[in-house]
Amino acid sequence: MNAPFAELPKALLPWFAANARPLPWRQNRDPYRVWVSEIMLQQTRVEAVLGYYARFLDAFPTIQTLADAPEDLLFKLWEGLGYYSRARNLQKAARVICTYFSGEFPRTWEEIRALPGVGPYTAGAIASICFEQPRAAVDGNVLRVSARYLADETCVDEPAYKTRVTQQLEQVYPAGQCGAFTQSLMELGATVCTPRSPKCAICPLRDSCRGLQEGSAEHLPRKTPKKEKQLMRKSVFLLQHGDQIALCRRRSEGLLAGLWELPNTDEPFSPQQALSWAAAQNLQPSALMRQGHRVHIFTHIRWEMDGFFIRCAAAPDVFVWQTPEQIRHDYALPTAFRKFLEEL
Ligand code: SF4
Prior knowledge:
This protein is of the alpha+beta class. It folds into 2 domains: 212 residues, Endonuclease III, domain 1; 113 residues, Nucleoside Triphosphate Pyrophosphohydrolase. 43% of the residues lie in helices and 15% in strands. It contains 15 helices and 7 strands. The model has no long low-confidence stretch (mean pLDDT 95). Bound molecules: iron/sulfur cluster. The site of iron/sulfur cluster has 15 residues, from α9 and α12.
């Protein structure tokens, strides 16, 4: 069978042994620690994850403690990392493991893949790193390395391409070093074969990389053009009563489900409209100041937000009223809203 990646293990394993960054989730092969790191690292840079990872494991050192965690504490520890469904799914999966696997992390790729929030990439990472199974973990980094290495012009976001690369990599997984091989590919993509300006001169694959030989490495990988993000214009309200600010909860489904937020509308308001809105909420508004214009970008949506600070003479209990210090300390407020609070 054609094995286009046959040369990779012998080039990458010694390089990885000499160059692996000493990251905290590499201290041992505990599947709980590896799993939490892989979920946190989705869409998030290593440097941004390090502090969150340490605090999360301090608070929830075992699968059972994560399963039992109060949701507000879970979200507070995730505050600022974004993609909060990851935290929710971590807890759901922890509960599945406690209920159906007696608290022991499942060992087969199929069982791991079936956990909430776990896709083929994460299942491959855990199965290979923690249980030495020949399962590939193919994410954007690995797709980029493979496309350049083979000078492959296929769009890497086509599912068929990912399936092909996964199968071709799994043909060459080295027995007894599956975990190291998975991590060596990740490490190469993160530190050498980077999205811009790949460091081909120091790359352990430079002698067999077709992208380098053909001069196409910098232009690869190819991707299908992204769809434009949906634009949503919002008005966000910092409602102040005495020394307290109003909060409310988002709906239990959809974007930022169940999280706390500053009161807001899905319409751009003028100051006069903002005052009318506040009056209609029985807030008895007495003064208004513009609080700036902010943009927050999600995967598919772009929020453009106009902020309004409104001093209120009434504090109706449809809102939760807390001091800014209490909010910062006790409430998980998504970054999109926290930016407004920080201006106070
Ligand atoms: S030689 Fe360059 S393009 Fe090829 S894998 Fe290494 S860093 Fe990437």
